[in-house]
Write a structure and sequence with these properties.
By secondary structure, this protein is mainly α. The chain has a single domain, classed as Formate dehydrogenase/DMSO reductase fold (Up-down Bundle), CATH 1.20.1630. 77% of the residues lie in helices and 2% in strands. The chain is built from 13 helices and 2 strands; from the N terminus they run αααααααααααββαα. A two-stranded antiparallel ribbon has the order 1-2. The protein is globular, with a radius of gyration of 20 Å. Keywords: Cell membrane, Membrane, Transmembrane, Transmembrane helix.
Length: 331
Amino acid sequence: MSTFAAVVLFIGVTAYAVLGGADYGAGFWDLTAGGARRGRNSRHLIDQTLAPVWEANHVWLIFCLVMLWTGFPSAFAAIMTTLYIPLGLAALGIVVRGSGFAFRKVVVKTDQQRATGAAFATSSVITPFFLGTVAGGIASGRVPADGHGDPLTSWVNPTSLLGGVLAVGVCAFVAAVFLTAEARTRADARLEGWFRRRAQASAVATGAVALAGIGILHADAGRLFDGLTGRGLPLVLVSAACGLASIVLLHRAVPRLLQALAVGAAGTVVVGWGVAQYPYLLGTHLRIGEAAAPNATLASLTLVAAAALLLVVPAMALLFVLHQRGHLDTT
């Protein structure tokens, strides 16, 4: 029962990493689009693409927090009392990002538009970075089972910083592929080329960081390294293959295939992390069964989670379908 609850929790983590990651990555390209005149068209496409879905994707973050808090309360307490600095900064980034995205559509003065746009774009980079450091701190075993670990070194360390940089890079790559596909759907060749070049550049940069990270993990997180090069290796290879295929096919593949490949590249590497870490919930020292709530709680949580997924997944799928078909007002 505890393993099943952990799998459901990690499904939520993967969904947020992919869908929320695409949103954050769009903010990265908003930040680097250039001045007001130069970046107007690319920012307009980003706004139109994000408007119907950017709030919906945070459902997965709430789902993960509830699952972790209810199903694995000791692990939840350990994480929150150790990694409260990056978690707090990530939460602040989520709030600032949402406020910036919402208000830049309604303010009329140029300086206000610039301020709100900068808030949205900057926090879109900061938030995945800090969430990546949290993942690195957990994966490398720097969160004690009883909590209250070092509030600084738990996330300022080689593995955590690697996780933060990779999170930003993966988000940028996924978003660039999605936006390339969106521009192709709209028959906008100029924007398609603009985002295609950035997808290629972000893929190369993220791949280089991942290769450099092999040495970092070997030296700083031995058990995670062994897991990723052992039972997690097939998923890592699938992720690399999906990423490479999406880059090779950027010029000619249909938009849905490009999006599926980008999702596969991001999702499988997150799943690979989970497989590599199993059966531990906290890095190297707290097993899933040891951190789990009583079976009665897990059974109730499983039923509630199943009901939630049955309600949420079809609703979100309908939202994405309506958006892809242009039936939603994005003005």
